[in-house]
């Protein structure tokens, strides 16, 4: 008799025990898990930028899929690159974008080249990253930035000639499709609600209510903080409108804008009108985590520009000992 799989189709935007992840149960520390999540979402951001898709659609949706997947599946079971590619392809379909599977694979191969060489314009930072035990890189990482950039551009021009029936393309294709199916099963095939739950969708509404929607700098700054929130697992820990309000508070502080509280009751703040009372602690937590992403001397930089070694027991499909590592230059 064949084994049956029970799917959980409930819609639970905020998880009841967000700290109880599969990776944590496998003994992976919270800091290590955050590091690898940052690495995965940086790949999604790079892919979104390369393919010119909106941060409020494909990028945000892919990040939600990525984070929710890793609450069900351990980092020791599925590597970050596979999860990122599967999440991005699935987000493309959810958002109904005209981006092909071939484009997705070619884009991630381009990013793969950049990460192997640590393509960053600060040589001191690159030298520091190369000393970290969690990072893998090839011999070209020590070259000057301009030389690495030229080399990657030349190699990218040959990507279109990769044989679609060859072993390299076949491996990446199989990984993307297989991981996409794993994500769908892990999330119970219930993903239609995700695009309507992004914090970006609240930004313009809140700014209009506060009568500061004409301030383009404030709006852009708040939007950027919402983009930053996708890097973290805030989407499964807090409601989207709380993340949006925290982003606006940070943006107002950054832009030096005084938000109007004078028309409200004496003891009430503007965010209490929108979110209800009793959320000050949550807003503070969100703001602190978003500001921590600005630290240029932390693991945020390593996760964003380098290739972080996978925690998968038998190495990832594109790790330093893999066929892809030797084949893709």
From TrEMBL:
Signal peptide from the UniProt entry: none
One Gene Ontology term of the molecular function aspect: cyclin-dependent protein serine/threonine kinase regulator activity
GO biological process: regulation of transcription by RNA polymerase II
Entry-linked Gene3D superfamilies: Cyclin-like
Matching CDD domains: CYCLIN_CCNL_rpt2
InterPro entries: Cyclin-like_sf, Cyclin/Ssn8
PANTHER family: CYCLIN
Protein name: Cyclin N-terminal domain-containing protein
């Amino acid at each position: 008799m064949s084994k049956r799989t029970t799917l959980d189709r409930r819609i639970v935007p905020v998880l009841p025990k967000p700290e109880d992840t599969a990776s944590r149960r496998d003994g992976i520390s919270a800091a290590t898990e955050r590091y690898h999540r940052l690495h995965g979402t940086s790949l999604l951001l790079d892919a979104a930028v390369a393919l010119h898709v909106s941060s409020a659609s494909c990028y945000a949706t892919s990040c939600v899929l990525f984070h929710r997947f890793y609450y069900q599946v351990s980092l020791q079971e599925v590597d970050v690159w596979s999860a990122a590619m599967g999440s991005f392809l699935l987000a493309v379909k959810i958002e109904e974008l005209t981006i092909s599977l071939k484009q997705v694979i070619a884009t991630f191969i381009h990013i793969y080249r950049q990460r192997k060489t640590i393509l960053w314009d600060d040589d001191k930072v690159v030298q520091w990253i190369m000393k970290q035990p969690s990072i893998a890189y090839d011999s070209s990482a020590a070259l000057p930035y301009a030389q690495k950039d030229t080399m990657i551009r030349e190699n990218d021009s040959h990507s279109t000639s990769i044989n679609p029936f060859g072993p390299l393309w076949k491996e990446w294709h199989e990984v993307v499709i297989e991981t996409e199916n794993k994500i769908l099963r892990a999330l119970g095939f219930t993903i239609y609600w995700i695009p309507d739950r992004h914090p970006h969708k609240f930004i313009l509404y809140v700014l209009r209510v506060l009568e500061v929607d004409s301030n383009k700098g404030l709006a852009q700054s708040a939007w950027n903080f919402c983009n930053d929130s996708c890097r973290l697992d805030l989407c499964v820990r807090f409601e989207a409108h709380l993340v949006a309000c925290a982003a606006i508070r940070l943006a107002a502080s950054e832009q030096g804008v005084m938000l109007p509280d004078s028309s409200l009751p004496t003891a009430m703040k503007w965010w209490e009108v929108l979110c209800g009372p009793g959320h000050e602690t949550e807003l503070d937590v969100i703001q602190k985590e978003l500001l921590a992403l600005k630290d240029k001397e932390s693991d945020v930089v390593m996760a964003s520009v380098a290739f972080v070694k996978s925690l998968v027991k038998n190495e990832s499909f594109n790790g330093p000992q893999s066929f892809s590592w030797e084949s893709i230059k």
